[in-house]
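Q: Protein A?
A:
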Amino acid sequence: MRTKDYQVNSVTGSRKKKSEVKTSSVGETSAAKPQIISLFSGAGGMDLGFKDAGFKVAVAIDLAPAAIKSHKRNFPRTKSIVGDLEKLQPAGVLAHALAAIPSGSKVAVIGGPPCQGFSRANNNSQADDPRNTLPKLYLEIVRELQEHYVVEFIVLENVLGIRDKKHSETYAALVNGIRALGFDVTEKELCAIDYGVPQNRKRVILSGLRSGQGYSIVRPRKSKGLANVREAIGHLCEPAYFAHKLEVDDIPHHPNHWTMRPRSDRFSNPSNEDDGNGRSFKRLKWDLASPTVAYGHREIHVHPNGHRRLSVHEAMLLQGFPETFVLEGNLSEQVEQISNAVPPPLARSVANAVARALNKR
């Protein structure tokens, strides 16, 4: 399904051009800050946080074509590339970087390698899962970039499970690898709800700033924002239901305000409150924060009213995406992009903390 090129205000319903969307920065202007190279970018949740903090996202690479289509739409000035990093290898990433950023420039690398191999939700996760080699590839790419750029900092996001005992060797190698590349490392466990996102989503954030520069420690500041599901999505009308010939004009309020048609018998009895514990039928509560927005096949959380699952747009708002952000792709591709995203407000807090550290504050 194609979406129209507009952005929607949640309160007034008015439309804005992308050029009218405001961002904020801390300290330096974006021109003076390192340019961002985003690996495993997805649709750009982390990228949006850094952009809002005044950084320029110069290059973004992700395996999923739909995610990059979304990235191109929301970051029109970024060189957004569909690419498998395991096939590109460091030399391929460098080639794309050199096409967008002059050699010798200051750059930074951000991104979160796919976390399924470390996720605690994956009961079958093993230390030798092939996906667990991606953080190592991340560091190899950084090492290659250092041959041609001044890599001022890196930021890497992953699930808490990466620090579990069975993955301890991988995690230790990652932290030691960052230090070996010449960065001072800060390890943080952050929860999205502490940064204005109505979601109990905990993640590990590793940041590495170039050693020997006198930079401060990266200290993200907690911020107030939406606190529960009602504040995030209580104002929305009913979404459209998926259909093969569904057009964007048939979708109310926002191009992503659509969901699967409810077919389970459980949706026909929404008064039943004892249905919120199962993984595939987890019903949200209006006055509580959402559980982690990370959906598998047909695991999209159930709307608090109990009569359907969340729309993609509702999930986006629970992730802290602004109303101006629009996802491309089919329904399952959009759901995947939301599940893989870093909540932008959390990313913005990290980016602002990095900016303060670079300014030695």
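Q: Protein B?
A:
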Amino acid sequence: MQAIENSVEGNPGIAQIQQDAPPLLFVILICSVATIGGFLFGFDSGVINGTVTGLQQAFNSNTAGTGFNVASMLLGCAVGAFFAGRLADRWGRKQLLLISAVLFVVSAWGSGIAASSAEFVFYRVLGGLAVGAASVMSPAYISEVAPAAMRGRLTTVNQMAIISGLFVAFISNYWLARTAGSAVNEWWMGFSAWRWMFWVEIIPAALFFVALLLIPESPRYLVLSRQPEKATEVLRKLYGASRVQEKLDQIRASVVADHQPKLSDLLDKNAKGRLMGLGKIRKIVWVGIGLAVFQQLVGINVVFYYGAVLWQAVGFSEADALLINIISGGVSIGACLITMALVDRIGRKPLLLVGSIGMAITLGLVAFAFTTASVDASGSLQLSNEMGLLALVAANAYVFFFNGSWGPAMWTMLGEMFPNQIRGSGLAVSGLAQWGANFAITMTFPVMLVGIGLAGAYGIYTLFAVLSIAFVIYLVHETKGVELEDMRG
């Protein structure tokens, strides 16, 4: 990229064009690098889907133990998201993404080599730290370098990268399991196929680290950290020379001059800097937490983490269940493409509202289908052909509505809705809430599967989808086309 910039600077005609218009190709390239973090987020979240049986056999774990093995990463995600948001205000967005890339590599290797449940959990928690950091920093970085007019589309690319990561993980799991005969069978070099499912991730994680070395730091962070010269240089590359001073002044005006960002900035204060009520948190922070939590309470990650187990529980074979995961991944990518075309046209709030309504209906249909399941002689659930088809179609329709709305729009809004001064802290708290809810849903699903069954579990997710409709209508405000410096808390 530096060589390209040098050749541009050596050509007066091209240099003049660069002064008059933002170099969008450069913006797209650096945003694409950030989205590799989203890809790894998706891959690391989805790879566990095909390894559950292998984990049960390798570590001889019961239902609760398996649930913790699967959900353990999410503890790291919650911690990673919280501290990444805070540390990014100290060290920078790029530095946190570099650290997450290293953790992705270590976690992928360790998860595959683990010889005990405790060792596996340790490496999955490391991976969770990486996923948590990438989940908040990738969309935040994109929001801070992208022009307002196309910010939604570029941030949606990150969600597509997440889904692509899930999709590639599903394909990789399916191919490895099919080649070996089963996820628990030996595949290559004496190691079971489920271990190789984790090791595949090392390749994109290493690529992410190398690519991050080539992109600049966020100009908003550089202003916050009192590095005006570096901020000016990055702004020149992003907006063209003619708008550098204008953007620099706007960013400076949106931050507090007397201190670095801190968690107490999330509290409501009056014009004199005094708290408005004891410990009263800004409304925008509660909205961010609500967006983060509702995205998980509708149960989407049950499909991503337990898809293979879920479909096998109602009579599908392991191979068919893994193939259904691939279909769901393809549906998700298609939904993200539609969102990318609409998010900067119709806005974030309409997408969220349509998604909530669609999810409530489709989740209700899935729950209804599971109420008709019978139990065969082996204790496994069985659906009739008609109800099996209804459950399959409704579940994929649910995945479509989620990934056409709450999947990308939630991360887009979290990355842009907070004012510059509190973006890192707001993302920290919202990210912690999101991954905490994710952990609760993932950890409780195996227990609910045994206790109240699939119909009961999906009935609960349906209720939260209905509640999210009211949340969007009354509390969510549109951010389409609003400059980051104009966001109000």
